[in-house]
Amino acid sequence: MNDIALVIPEATLLAFACGTLLVDAFLGRRNPAATFWFAVLGGLVVLAELAHSVPDTIRIGFAGTYRLDVVGAVLKTFIVALVLVSLFYAREYFRKRGVSQGEHYPLVLFATLGMMMLVSSNSLLMVYLGLELLSLSLYALVALQRDSLQSSEAAMKYFVLGALASGMLLYGMSMLYGVTGTLDLPDLLIKVSVAGDKRLLLVFGLVFVLVGISFKLGVVPFHMWVPDVYQGAATPVTQFIGTAPKLAAFAMALRLLVDGLGGLAEEWHQMLILLAILSMGLGNLLAIAQTNFKRMLAYSTIAHMGYMLLGLVSTRASGYAASMFYVTVYALMSMGAFGAIILLASRNSEADQLSDLSGLAKRSPWFALIMLILLFSMAGVPPFAGFWAKWFVLKEVVGAGYTWLAALAVLFSLVGAYYYLRVIKIMYFDAPVVSERPEAGQDLKLVLSVNGLAVLALGLMPDMLLRVCLDATLSYPPWQ
Amino acid sequence: MQLDLPLLSLVIWLPIIGGLWVIFAGSGARERGVRYDALIISLVTFALSLLLYRDFDLTTASMQFVELHPWIASFKINYHIGIDGIALPLILLTTFTSILVIAGGWEVIEERVNQYMGAFLILEGFMVGVFSALDALLFYVFWEAMLIPMFLIIGIWGGPRRVYATIKFFLYTFLGSVLMLVALLYLYAHAHSFNLADLQATALTAAEQRWIFIAFFLAFAVKVPMWPVHTWLPDAHVEAPTGGSVVLAAIMLKMGGYGFIRFSLPITPDASASLDSFMIALSLVAVVYIGFVALVQQDMKKLIAYSSISHMGFVTLGLFAMFDIYAATGDWKNAAMGIEGAMVQMISHGFISGAMFLCVGVLYDRLHSRQINDYGGVANTMPVFAGFMLLFAMANAGLPATSGFVGEFIVILSVFKANFWYAFAAASTLILGAAYTLWMYKRVVFGEIRNSKVAALTDINGREAAILTALAILVLVFGIWPAPLLDMMHASVQHLVEQVAQSKISVAAYE
């Protein structure tokens, strides 16, 4: 009974996900809005439950496989909130493109359930279960546009590479289990530190585990799927993949690397440095060459995840807070950027080319301004939230003694600034190709405006979110 | 009467909020009507900054009008502002120039007028913020945020190659700034504070200081700009609309000099002392070499841009010659004179370069050409204008009784005490500056009327005359009687020199 109390939000979400499936099957044909509103209701209820479930201590249940702690509760709250916002964007997209896809909503809820399990996992097995539930839902979401060649290709690629990465992860986990004889993360933490001459074998397992994490985050050299999937999937699906699952992937990294393999920090932090440098470099450089906006954002994601890893590199609690802040802010910015593509989309155009943005400042000054905020924020220019995100991880890197890495990171951000500026140039300096104002429902306009202004507000007043991230990771027992 | 208002905050935030108001209130039918709102906002801001001057205590070097509120409590970052005698003249220059820019774009800007006026007002607020921030991170936020309106101003209202120019401008400045951010973070790791006073008091070893100095150098040298990182400036100046050029030349360049004064010299005094010959060499190259480059320009705006770089060479020369002056004379008082000269040069260059760009703007608005060859004999059709331009050209050449003379003269005089050859090279500007400025003036204004377009020119109208008159008065007043300016900064410069004279290395060795 006590165990169930631990997972009330998850159980509710499962009920709503199944319910959404039924609602869609029985009411969806006649009334497509019913599925949407039921999913939104589910999200709201779960959010309310999460808000009441922040624990003061770590609580462990289900035979040690599941844990409820502050960092998990906060991340789950952020994830569900982001999912909820993305549902509104998705509805508007389907309305504009004139397609009705009720399957989207239950799949999103199942993916969310996977994310929540991943965030709360306390054993290797639970990590894997959560990850698979998330990934399988995502594959299906990408493949949902059956008649689009590009979507099918993207889904196939995602699935094959994803399966390979899962295999690697399992292989790594099996090695860890082979050495330590436990799947339990806290147990693993203790046994790793006394592994003695078996340490090399553990490092071998660590490498494979890191491959799995890197694939999920989409960092170089495990980034191959990112551009194709981002471009090929329908925009709200890309938006979904680019936001909440990034938080889940961060949680996965935290659980595995810090909670489980903290004793190998000496090894993994060096690997992370390499991954971060490659991602920041390659992601930013390749983004320059793109003409498709979604593909450009895909490379930009790769670079951003590189920056996010910098916080973990510092291997201290405030560094994890920095990564958490980064990934949260990134999700918010990325949500808005894809939201702008949805705003521009119409019945016969996906509007995902950079040229579709041309002259937006004349066509819709307000949304051009919102985009301006989002893009400068992604480039890391104050006074927007993206600046504080970069600032925080850089501060941690410098504090950990890697000043050269911080200098390298800011030089890559200079490269990044170039392609964000190019988008602003297209919006503000180029003449519009089409002259009509982008048409969209009031709810989308409201959500997108709030989204952009939130990035500005967080830039002016970042203290609250910083505080939340710092508290979440400080209350979390740091490995020694 | 001492008003109980956060006066300094008002000077920062009134234009920012006013600028947003202008942008939003001016969409649609009132697009041109909001020009009046913008002008009133800039006038009120200037009036408020004059109140700062009225209540400013000239006798103390400590910060005045200090406001301190927690901003990001988790990291002890504060909304901490205040001004001393170095910041105050620059703030006055900023608020004054902004009025000219708003008035200067009155009829000329026809497209998106509300956004133009709003962008300049927001920019004004950010610039005042830069000059008054006492928290390094607050400074950085203003410093970077400033790039956004400027980027848009050049890109939207600029000339044919505006996109290239504005992206180059942004990336160049961004490059320097991000490395400064790393340096600030390094300092934070030592001092656990972003408070400028704490950073200035932090002990650092010689090697640390050298790295930090280089990072700061990149940020500020790009802004000044010093040779060889000056190449963005001619492009940005040429392509920017007149108002953009004026703000760039009159205020933004000064931020480089201000940064050296506020950050490089007091935070890394020993590195500044050991690298001073490097800085002096770069300054002299700027003064002499860029002076020659200016001589061959065919484009008026480009010529003034190069002349700006050359004149800003005096600023860095005056700042970094202080160590040699002290070594030669054994008296920090003489060293302080170099810094005061640099400050006067910054203010005076603000007036003169602003005026020169406005003059070119006047011509460009009529003929839509900046090429010297397209003009000739302008004096015949625009006699009043020719008179104004003559005054500013003379000031640019450093004629005594104009403010241009005072700054250059003080710097040359103090540098003379350090090394005769420094002063010799620097003094060559008096010849070079006269050559390029007056030669341009001759080709544009004097001579026969070259073509029918020049023959059809009309003289300046009341608005333009008012702007140029205001500047002319200031150029003359500070040329004849610079004492108020010097009095304002005297105590603060003294304090700065005392700070710089104190080595930080020995303290660092103990810790």
Salient structural properties:
heterodimer; A: 480 residues; mainly alpha; 2 strands; B: 511 residues; two-stranded antiparallel ribbon; globular
Q: How many beta-strand elements of chain B?
A: 2
Largest interface, with counts of residues having CB < 8 Å to the other chain, equals: A-B, 33 and 33 residues
Structural class of chain A: mainly alpha
Task: Tell me the structural class of chain B.
Answer: mainly alpha
Can you give the helix content of chain B as a percent range? over 70%
Distance between the termini of chain B: 48 Å
Number of distinct beta strands of chain A: 2
Shape of chain A: globular
Proportion of strand residues of chain B? under 5%
Number of H/I helices of chain B: 24
Largest beta sheet: strand ordering of chain A? 1-2
Q: Write down the Rg of chain B.
A: 22 Å
State which percent range the strand residues of chain A make up: under 5%
Radius of gyration of chain A from CA coordinates:
21 Å
> For the terminal residues of chain A, how far apart are their CA atoms?
34 Å
* Run of helices and strands of chain B: HHEEHHHHHHHHHHHHHHHHHHHHHH
- Could you spell the SSE succession of chain A in H and E letters? HHHEEHHHHHHHHHHHHHHHHHH
Describe this structure in words.
The complex is a heterodimer of chains A (480) and B (511). Chain A contains 21 helices and two strands. Chain A has 480 residues and is mainly alpha-helical. Chain A has one domain. Chain A is globular, with a radius of gyration of 21 Å. Chain A starts with a helix and ends in a 6-residue tail after the last helix. The mean pLDDT of chain A is 90. In chain B, strands 1-2 form a two-stranded antiparallel sheet. Chain B has 511 residues and is mostly helical. The interface between A and B is medium-sized, with 33 and 33 residues.
